[in-house]
Amino acid sequence: MGENPAKNHYAQLNHGEENEMDIFGYKTQGCRRALCIAGYILSCGALRLLFYWKPEWDVWLNCIRCSLEEADIVLLRTTDEFQIYSRKTVTWISVSAFIKSRLDNPATAEEDSIFSKAIMKPSLQVKTIQVQKIRYVWNIYAKEFQKAGILEDHYTCSAIHAKFGSGLTCSEQNVRRVICGPNSIDVPVIPIWKLLIKEVLNPFYVFQLFSVCLWFAEDYMEYATAIIIMSLLSVLLTVYDLRQQSIKLHRLVESHNNTMVTVCRNKEGFQELESHHLVPGDVLVLKEGKTLLPCDAILISGQCTVNESMLTGESIPVTKTHLPQTDNFKPWRMYCAEDYKKHVLFCGTEVIQTKADDKGVVKAVVLRTGFNTAKGDLVRSILYPKPMNFKLYRDALRFLMCLIAFAAIGMIYAVCVFALNGEEAGEVVKKALDVITIAVPPALPAALTTGVIYTQRRLKKKGIFCISPQRINVCGQLNLICFDKTGTLTEDGLDLWGLLPSERNCFQDIHRFPADHSLPWGPVFRAMAVCHSLIVWKGKIQGDPLDVKMFEATNWVIDDSSRHQIEGQGSTHATVVRPGPKASCAPVEGVTILHQFPFSSALQRMSVIAQEIGGDQQVFTKGAPEVIAMLCRAETVPSNFESKLLFYTAQGFRVIGLACKSLQAEKPPTDLTREEVESDLTFLGLLIMENRLKRETKPVLEELSAACIRSVMVTGDNIQTAVTVAKNAGMISPTHRVILVEADKVPGSFAASITWKPLEENKIEDYRSLEDASQTERRIKLALGSGQYHFAMSGKSYQIVEQHFRHLLPCFKNNFFFPPLLLIGTVFARMSPGQKSSLVEEFQKLDYFVGMCGDGANDCGALKVAHAGISLSEQEASVASPFTSRTPSIACVPELIREGRAALVTSFCMFKYMALYSTIQYLGVLLLYWQLNSFGNYQFLFQDLAITTVIGVTMSFTAAYPKLVPYRPPSQLISPPLLLSVVLNILFSLSMQIFGFVVVQEQPWYSKTDIHSACLSMNNDMENSSSSLGLHGVRDGAHEQTDNGFKSYENTTVWLLSTINCLIVALVFSKGKPFRQPIYTNYVFILVLLGQLGICLFLVFADIDDLYSKMDLVCTPTTWRISMVVMLAVTFAVSFLVEEAVIENRPLWLLLKKTFRYHSRSHYKKLQHMLEQDSAWPPLNETFFSDTVTITVEGNMGGHSNPTFDSSEDSL
């Protein structure tokens, strides 16, 4: 072949994306395939089932390695820690029917597109694979699989307008449609039979099937039937739940696939077609009226207002502007930077208003189709959720492996004992296999999920909904919560507090709202009237709450109903604002908003070009005051600008800067660039908004602090405002100091600098401190020495630190600042959505268990990445978050942590109990195997069904403890206290059973052959006792009773001891405080235990012939029965004492840790220890410089972001 197959055998799919995978090429080999088919037949399908569970084994045994180009089978492996394999078959698509007459010139818009590079000649076929609903095609030239349903990123702005502005031809569209597939987010309702088969083939149910078959072979009919009934109920409930989810998801997306759209055809004009025929490169014509977008598209002409609540969680209209026609060499997304989404219409969002420009129609180029779109990505995240990596689940699997190893030892023992005693081979095999079903209880996985199910129900009653139940246990480990500010810690709405106008570079008297006199007409009034992106929708003014409050203060109204004549541009659709009935007298009829530059979180500002009716054009800009001041002419900015800004932000106000300038009408407004518009501005003043804390915020943060759960604020607001809100909320104590961390790039080099300086509170009077500098310095040093300080930093500084100062060195040198910043950072301001996600992931790298609480608007990425994302929005965007609170309050956070801790402890209790129950039964059976005996079927049934199943269901009823204690429950099964608890209780049980087994054989009434000797002996030799205690077991016809092989004194003794021992461990392991309510509050569980104990004691002391015969018990003297009760009482006392005095003795374990100098392996704990040793930390009023080597960080900061949608931070 000329190429080394091994060299091209491997590649990466979706490199650098969240769903990155390794891909390996394989070719099916006939002889291997034949051998595997023979194996399926000989193993009665067991080998095929194994391949179903392990697809990589299927590929490795059926195929041989080859290059990806030759492969007919590909093996995919996720690049995360789970490394999950999947097998995909390569398929071929023929396009010859569409380009047969144009062999020399394939019907594609240009030669460098994936559509021309994927077509193999002369066969005119395309090689494809389908992975998680996405179609990939083989690029012949790049020798790799690439996504088909997207427009490539390499196009420039001018290229998109030039190549796609006129639309595709019919033949081009046909070829693309065949290669890309239909533009549909098709989630079919999964047939019940498919769900049933998939559920039944779960290894847990396969093991249950094996157990049931074995029990039927041993005539253990009753329990086998009970397990079948319970398993069927479990399977049917699961299938019903999955079916309902499938129907719900199908209904969510079905409307997307059935819409009619208008497209522009090259040389053929406009054409109506169904939306599932759309392909990347098509030109979509958007008409007036509401439209649900069936794909992602780049707006190339006109302007749109869309409702993106499906993606962002907020029903705030968002303005979209057309892609500029700039002639440059940068790809369009790189050119537009973070603002690219202001030109993209996302699938699933609703266009509520369109505004055509001088070109006459609003047009958009299809960017992505099907599951490649924003909505498709959201649906795929539901269909293919990221697996959870939690120590409990990994340890549970390891523990299960240990039980299997334990069972293997028992099997060998059983084979040896029965084979040496000459038992039949079939009987030996049955007894040996029986040991597995005893040592590894089939009900174990079901028992572990009961606690989570009950917790989910309790959360639902409290208004907290969960779509990812496996994350509930993780909530019990949370030790850091990131909070968004606006709408989460503070009220959603903003109140207009005041306006500080500026004239001739001096601030004037403040204008308070509401005021007796209205705001005078002038530039500031005009800015408030037009510098917004509001629209009239459903008869109401809709838009950003800040814009609404600002506009309402003017008492003007929006006239958005007609077309308006604009000088030099003819008739166009523009928004006009006019004085309302309550407005003060204005010298103009109205103001027309000609063009908008929407708010950008990257630029932290928005601008409009407006024109008074009959007047000149003007630019009005509003945004972050620091940014606005930099865009203004220096002579217009007041000299005390910084001090005034600090004065208001220090009080927690949200401050907005306003500016304007006159515009010469040399070019149409739509042809002006943002850089031209937003320069040489005149500073107008500061708009001051009040954002109040929610009533629940401070108590909740105090509760979390008392529980040693760290709180961090991650916001898009001003840093000073954020710090003030953090102090008011109790996130930062009044006595603690705040250190501002500022990082900047060094001009003219690749290096960066980082500066640490105290953020001083500003005094109300002129910012003059009453203390002198030396006193201030001493006070700061004292606070720093006691560790009472917090870092605050902006998103810009965070990004620079991420790039330049993250290298981990053994000591604190120039570039070892990133982890300490995360360790002590409390306020992260001016953070973009991508930076929020990155921050959460960086906290996770330090081994924090991170919760994220936000209102869903710009927190979707962070909510998805966090261990527990809690959305306070009930919009559809909450599907990105595992938890959604019906009440928009952070009170749900401690509630979730409480329930998570209770669920985690319940899981541990259940695991310990199930492990002990199976071990107790296992030890009892092995003891009886020594005498070629075992438990009877009804004895097994009583232990398995009447005892364990009922306990397993009721033990989890215990509710969460109302108070959060300042430590967390253990996160892993393989921990010294838990292992010690299990091992000691196994030893106690083993000791008691062996003691009973041996001592009963030493009794004078014991007989190995005569199972009635005890009662006869008692009748003859215990006259004194008989008068007081009575005779037990002397019954007519006793000698005629036949023994079925199970009855013996050892069997009776061991079974009674092991059965009541199960009750003992259930009570001992049922933890109450500090994570769950005291066990006596679980009335059902206590009643069940008392009832079971009563029945067991009745069986001990009863002397009912039929009952004993049915249960395979034999009569023993009363003294022996009392002896057994004493043995059980001693075991209970010892077990309870050890559990309370040793296992649950937290001070003892802390002392042992200290004695043996045990240090936590968590990175953040190690870092804390290192910082405590460094007296020079933190540096204060110092500047450090990085090395010139930097780490390249993508625009989204490496955090999770929806590859097709990253909502903008809508805060100024």
TrEMBL record:
<keyword id="KW-0812">Transmembrane</keyword>
<dbReference type="InterPro" id="IPR044492">
    <property type="entry name" value="P_typ_ATPase_HD_dom"/>
</dbReference>
<keyword id="KW-0472">Membrane</keyword>
<dbReference type="InterPro" id="IPR004014">
    <property type="entry name" value="ATPase_P-typ_cation-transptr_N"/>
</dbReference>
<dbReference type="InterPro" id="IPR023299">
    <property type="entry name" value="ATPase_P-typ_cyto_dom_N"/>
</dbReference>
<protein>
    <recommendedName>
        <fullName>Cation-transporting ATPase</fullName>
        <ecNumber>7.2.2.-</ecNumber>
    </recommendedName>
</protein>
<dbReference type="Pfam" id="PF00690">
    <property type="entry name" value="Cation_ATPase_N"/>
</dbReference>
<feature type="transmembrane region" description="Helical">
    <location>
        <begin position="938"/>
        <end position="957"/>
    </location>
</feature>
<dbReference type="GO" id="GO:0005789">
    <property type="term" value="C:endoplasmic reticulum membrane"/>
</dbReference>
<comment type="similarity">
    <text>Belongs to the cation transport ATPase (P-type) (TC 3.A.3) family. Type V subfamily.</text>
</comment>
<dbReference type="InterPro" id="IPR001757">
    <property type="entry name" value="P_typ_ATPase"/>
</dbReference>
<dbReference type="GO" id="GO:0015662">
    <property type="term" value="F:P-type ion transporter activity"/>
</dbReference>
<feature type="transmembrane region" description="Helical">
    <location>
        <begin position="432"/>
        <end position="454"/>
    </location>
</feature>
<feature type="transmembrane region" description="Helical">
    <location>
        <begin position="396"/>
        <end position="420"/>
    </location>
</feature>
<keyword id="KW-0460">Magnesium</keyword>
<keyword id="KW-1278">Translocase</keyword>
<feature type="transmembrane region" description="Helical">
    <location>
        <begin position="223"/>
        <end position="242"/>
    </location>
</feature>
<feature type="transmembrane region" description="Helical">
    <location>
        <begin position="1122"/>
        <end position="1143"/>
    </location>
</feature>
<dbReference type="InterPro" id="IPR059000">
    <property type="entry name" value="ATPase_P-type_domA"/>
</dbReference>
<dbReference type="GO" id="GO:0015203">
    <property type="term" value="F:polyamine transmembrane transporter activity"/>
</dbReference>
<dbReference type="GO" id="GO:0006874">
    <property type="term" value="P:intracellular calcium ion homeostasis"/>
</dbReference>
<feature type="transmembrane region" description="Helical">
    <location>
        <begin position="978"/>
        <end position="1000"/>
    </location>
</feature>
<dbReference type="GO" id="GO:0019829">
    <property type="term" value="F:ATPase-coupled monoatomic cation transmembrane transporter activity"/>
</dbReference>
<feature type="transmembrane region" description="Helical">
    <location>
        <begin position="914"/>
        <end position="932"/>
    </location>
</feature>
<feature type="transmembrane region" description="Helical">
    <location>
        <begin position="1052"/>
        <end position="1070"/>
    </location>
</feature>
<dbReference type="Pfam" id="PF00122">
    <property type="entry name" value="E1-E2_ATPase"/>
</dbReference>
<dbReference type="InterPro" id="IPR018303">
    <property type="entry name" value="ATPase_P-typ_P_site"/>
</dbReference>
<keyword id="KW-0479">Metal-binding</keyword>
<dbReference type="Pfam" id="PF13246">
    <property type="entry name" value="Cation_ATPase"/>
</dbReference>
<dbReference type="InterPro" id="IPR006544">
    <property type="entry name" value="P-type_TPase_V"/>
</dbReference>
<feature type="transmembrane region" description="Helical">
    <location>
        <begin position="1082"/>
        <end position="1102"/>
    </location>
</feature>
<dbReference type="InterPro" id="IPR047821">
    <property type="entry name" value="P5B-type_ATPase"/>
</dbReference>
<keyword id="KW-1133">Transmembrane helix</keyword>
<dbReference type="InterPro" id="IPR036412">
    <property type="entry name" value="HAD-like_sf"/>
</dbReference>
<dbReference type="GO" id="GO:0005524">
    <property type="term" value="F:ATP binding"/>
</dbReference>
<dbReference type="GO" id="GO:0046872">
    <property type="term" value="F:metal ion binding"/>
</dbReference>
<dbReference type="InterPro" id="IPR023214">
    <property type="entry name" value="HAD_sf"/>
</dbReference>
<dbReference type="GO" id="GO:0016887">
    <property type="term" value="F:ATP hydrolysis activity"/>
</dbReference>
<keyword id="KW-0067">ATP-binding</keyword>
<feature type="domain" description="Cation-transporting P-type ATPase N-terminal">
    <location>
        <begin position="147"/>
        <end position="220"/>
    </location>
</feature>
<dbReference type="InterPro" id="IPR023298">
    <property type="entry name" value="ATPase_P-typ_TM_dom_sf"/>
</dbReference>
<dbReference type="Pfam" id="PF12409">
    <property type="entry name" value="P5-ATPase"/>
</dbReference>
